Amino acid sequence: MVLWHQLDASAALAQLASDADRGLSEVESRRRLGEYGANELEADSRVSPVILLLEQFKNILVVILLVAVALSAFLGYTLEASAIAVICTSTSPPTACRPWHWPLTLRKAI
Q: pTM (2 decimals)?
C-alpha cells in the first residue's frame, strides 16, 4: 500500500504514471475512467432523526437510568425519578440529532 501523504510530488507522479505539466493523455484518462470509475463520492443514505433517537436506548447506561427512573417512581421517590428522567430526556435528543445534522453542515461548507 502506498502512503501517498509521505511521497513528494515527483514520486507521486511517478507512481501514478502522470506528468505534472501535461497530466494524463486523453487515452489514458479514458482507460482509467473505465477501469476505476468516476471520482465521485457515493451518496449516503439518510437516517431518520427518530431512528437515531431510538438508537440512543441501545446504550446500557441509558437503559440503567431508565430502570432507575421506573424503580424510583415505583418506590415513591418522585423527585429523584424526575431528576433522572430530565437528565435522560435532555441528553438523548441532542445526541441523536447531532449525526443527522452533520451532513447538512458539510453540504453548506462545500
A: 0.43
